[in-house]
Amino acid sequence: MADAPMTPTDDVREAVRERYAAAARATADGAGCCSSVSLTDASGTEVFGNAVYAGAEVEGATADALGASLGCGVPTAVADLHPGETVLDLGSGAGADVLISARRVGATGKAIGLDMTDEMLALARANAEQAGATNVEFVKGHIEEIPLPDASVDVVISNCVINLSGDKPRVLREVARVLKPGGRFAVSDVIADEGMDDATRADMAQWTGCIAGALTRREFEDALTAAGLADIEIRETHRVHTHAASAIVRARKAGA
Q1: What CATH number is associated with residue 119?
Q2: CB-side exposure of 136: number of CA atoms within 13 Å?
Q3: Number of domains in the chain
Q4: Please, is 195 exposed, middle or buried when counting C-beta atoms within 10 Å of its C-beta (0-12, 13-18, 19+)?
Q5: Which has the closest alpha carbon to 124: 140, 108, 147?
């Protein structure tokens, strides 16, 4: 039987996977993550990566995990994590946010990192071992098809990953599915300006750099509502591009 044809979503996924696998390999080889993924804006200011953690509470994360971060914010700063909770990090990369979460939920809680890239998963597991974290798990899979049961996590976090998906509404439906009633969604993500030009959106290199695939504020709100999430809050934190900004996005699943 012939292989199924690649879909546009598959094309985006493979481009993202290869770029972030290259970043993980560069980190493992000591070349630094930004040898394959740019962390700066057009003016040279660091708007992604370790720089965004400056001044944040990062207890639990190793220096190596923070140094390999490719995120655009600090979702753990607004997730309001509590001991005993189960936290899921979508696109967990080198594991910094998982390790911070693991420290906050304590021995009775659990932090799960989901990533599709073998190289990143290997980095994350090494960082968890270095940190001595025993309440963490790193799972291979896609954020459009989260390999967890319904209503199994208290909090979903993510750091500049949802915008990389070729099917964002499906990601948010999966988020709603795995959240327990009353569960929380707290992510850092890139929000596109309404006037983002077509050339930027069409540029795959910008997409895998967290820009061109981003939703606008209105599109993100609509997708969250359609997925069944409420109490939506979107707050811009800093500009990352002429046509886009990093933002904290929060919501809640209805229930107890």
Answers
A1: 3.40.50.150
A2: 30
A3: 1
A4: exposed
A5: 140
